[in-house]
Amino acid sequence: MQSNGHPSDLWDFGDPAGSEQRFRDAAAAAEGSPQAVWLTQVARALGLQERYDDAHDVLDDLVPGDSPEVEARLLLERGRVYRSSGDPDHARRFFAEAVEVARQAGLEELEVDALHMVALVVPTEEQLDAQLVALAAAEAATDPRARRWRASLLNNIGMVHSDAGRWADALDNFEQALAAREETDGTPTELGVARWMIAWALRNLGRTDEALVMQRALKADLASRGEEDPYVDEELALLEG
């Protein structure tokens, strides 16, 4: 990375307004390309708050200069704003450009991120192939941050299969996603979501006893942390009803 620090260190996707302020503070303490990187994340945080015009304004003021990282992030975040505001076709062009810029510069994490976004905006019939392209890039990467994308991509591939009613294939990918999370020391929340996806697939395959055991274990884990999850409760209601 050309910037000082990494954006993921400041992100809390559950609190985009708080994240925005942290990125603004980081940008105020930086200059040049590092400052521009932080400001791309300000734009992303604004987009998550549905402040799309403000997000575009921030990006409009940024100039990539001679930094491929800034150029790739500009394209990536511009695409995200368009997608979030309901224009996936426009977003796709920016994501595709971000892939090329990142690939040519050897920025593996940004390349995989952009490929993952491409897969979210292509037509339904292209989604599986696009997800597999992103997964292949993540698996071939040497950058640990790029390789961490494997879990999310495997989960997304599982979702494509589940949407098509291919529950056995979905289960296989959800199980691989959990293994990938465990390999990269996923957070308790990340691991819990991965386990929930497996249990969800098991229920849809008619393997309700196994699903019930997993959902009860998830409920117990949440209780041990003083947390609740309505999705776990919903599955338990279905399984115990």
Description of the structure:
The protein is mostly helical and about 240 residues long. The protein has two domains: about 140 residues, Tetratricopeptide repeat domain (Serine Threonine Protein Phosphatase 5, Tetratricopeptide repeat, Alpha Horseshoe); about 90 residues, Alpha Horseshoe (Serine Threonine Protein Phosphatase 5, Tetratricopeptide repeat). Helices cover about 75% and strands about 0% of the residues. The chain has 13 helices and no strands. The longest helix is centred in the middle third of the chain and has 18 residues. The radius of gyration is 19 Å and the shape is globular. About 45% of the residues are buried. InterPro entries: TPR-like_helical_dom_sf, TPR_rpt. This is Tetratricopeptide repeat protein. It comes from Nocardioides humilatus.
Which terms would index this structure?
mainly alpha, Serine Threonine Protein Phosphatase 5, Tetratricopeptide repeat, 77% helix, single chain, 241 residues
Summarize the structure.
The protein is built from 13 helices and no strands. The protein has 241 residues and is mainly α. It has two domains: 1-140, Tetratricopeptide repeat domain (Serine Threonine Protein Phosphatase 5, Tetratricopeptide repeat, Alpha Horseshoe), CATH 1.25.40.10; 148-241, Tetratricopeptide repeat domain (Serine Threonine Protein Phosphatase 5, Tetratricopeptide repeat, Alpha Horseshoe), CATH 1.25.40.10.
